[in-house]
């Protein structure tokens, strides 16, 4: 069932080109995340005899996870945003254990990569990366449910390119603001790719300043050329704390201030109404007493 997009080339393979065990399990997790009914149909097709619904685990809503400040999920979906040639695809290839290539091919359609990540304490989680082409972000965001499946978002920039950095912040604000409007909030990470190159001027100062303004961590510096795989552990660690690393953009601050002013106005209006009712009642009693 995985010969076509979005499953094609989305899992780890062996040196001979066959899908590995981790690849098979990750691919199945990807299929279940994207299309649970299709996953159940394939389970039945291969001879699964137990109750099909028992094969799926239903987790809490992401909003509930944020309230509880923890999650029981074993599969995390990370949306990858960034400018062209920022290094997004290299993150996906490295997750699948593929060697780095200097050849650049622009991504024109969304694509996935999934694999099992072993954390420091020995537990294993499945990480699904979903790469969103820069030119398609607006089209995707026009769907109000686009961000519903997002556990965490990563905004990638070329650490040697100032424009790429600015574009990643623009995309972050655009995505986070849309999430605020549609009720989808999630942790966000900044990833400074191509750390083996010379950083653009003021890179460190700008990144620290912006991170402080957004109230999130400073960019994670990685180089896929050197095979830096620790970034995937950091992505999962952040996703496991759904109440943290949620950016606060200028739009969100103004919206929060507006809501606070609105609540203050409503309370003041309610207080004035109660005072008016009390005054009216006292006058009514006074008139009644004087007439008697």
TrEMBL record:
<keyword id="KW-0547">Nucleotide-binding</keyword>
<dbReference type="GO" id="GO:0005741">
    <property type="term" value="C:mitochondrial outer membrane"/>
</dbReference>
<keyword id="KW-0496">Mitochondrion</keyword>
<keyword id="KW-0106">Calcium</keyword>
<dbReference type="InterPro" id="IPR027417">
    <property type="entry name" value="P-loop_NTPase"/>
</dbReference>
<dbReference type="GO" id="GO:0003924">
    <property type="term" value="F:GTPase activity"/>
</dbReference>
<keyword id="KW-0479">Metal-binding</keyword>
<dbReference type="Pfam" id="PF08355">
    <property type="entry name" value="EF_assoc_1"/>
</dbReference>
<dbReference type="InterPro" id="IPR020860">
    <property type="entry name" value="MIRO_dom"/>
</dbReference>
<keyword id="KW-0378">Hydrolase</keyword>
<keyword id="KW-0472">Membrane</keyword>
<dbReference type="InterPro" id="IPR052266">
    <property type="entry name" value="Miro-EF-hand_domain"/>
</dbReference>
<keyword id="KW-0812">Transmembrane</keyword>
<protein>
    <submittedName>
        <fullName>Mitochondrial rho GTPase 1-like protein</fullName>
    </submittedName>
</protein>
<comment type="similarity">
    <text>Belongs to the mitochondrial Rho GTPase family.</text>
</comment>
<dbReference type="InterPro" id="IPR013566">
    <property type="entry name" value="EF_hand_assoc_1"/>
</dbReference>
<keyword id="KW-1133">Transmembrane helix</keyword>
<keyword id="KW-0342">GTP-binding</keyword>
<dbReference type="GO" id="GO:0005525">
    <property type="term" value="F:GTP binding"/>
</dbReference>
<feature type="transmembrane region" description="Helical">
    <location>
        <begin position="261"/>
        <end position="281"/>
    </location>
</feature>
<keyword id="KW-1000">Mitochondrion outer membrane</keyword>
<dbReference type="GO" id="GO:0046872">
    <property type="term" value="F:metal ion binding"/>
</dbReference>
<feature type="domain" description="Miro">
    <location>
        <begin position="73"/>
        <end position="241"/>
    </location>
</feature>
<keyword id="KW-0677">Repeat</keyword>
């Amino acid at each position: 069932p995985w010969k076509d997009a979005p499953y094609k080339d989305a899992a780890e393979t062996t040196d001979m080109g066959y899908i590995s065990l981790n690849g098979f399990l990750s691919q199945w997790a990807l299929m279940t995340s994207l299309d649970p009914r299709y996953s159940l149909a394939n389970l039945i097709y291969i001879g699964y005899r137990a109750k099909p619904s028992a094969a799926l685990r239903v987790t809490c809503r992401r909003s509930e996870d944020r309230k509880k400040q923890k999650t029981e999920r074993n599969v995390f979906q990370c949306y990858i945003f960034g400018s062209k040639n920022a290094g997004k695809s290299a993150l996906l290839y490295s997750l699948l254990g593929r060697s780095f290539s200097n050849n650049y091919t622009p991504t024109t359609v969304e694509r996935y990569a999934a694999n099992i990540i072993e954390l420091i304490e020995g537990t294993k989680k499945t990480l699904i990366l979903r790469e969103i082409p820069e030119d398609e972000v607006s089209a995707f965001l026009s769907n109000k449910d686009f961000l519903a499946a997002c556990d965490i978002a990563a905004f990638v920039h070329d650490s040697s390119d100032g424009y790429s950095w600015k574009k990643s912040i623009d995309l972050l604000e655009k995505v986070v603001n849309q999430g605020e409007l549609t009720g989808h909030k999630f942790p966000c990470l900044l990833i400074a790719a191509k750390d083996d190159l010379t950083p653009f001027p003021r890179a460190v100062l700008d990144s620290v300043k912006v991170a402080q303004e957004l109230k999130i961590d400073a960019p994670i510096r990685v180089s896929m050329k050197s095979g830096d795989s620790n970034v995937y552990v950091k992505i999962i660690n952040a996703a496991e704390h759904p109440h943290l690393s949620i950016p606060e953009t200028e739009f969100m601050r103004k919206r929060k201030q507006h809501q606070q002013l609105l609540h203050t106005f409503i309370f003041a209006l309610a207080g004035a109404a109660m005072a008016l009712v009390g005054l009216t009642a006292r006058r009514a009693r006074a008139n009644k007493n004087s007439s008697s």
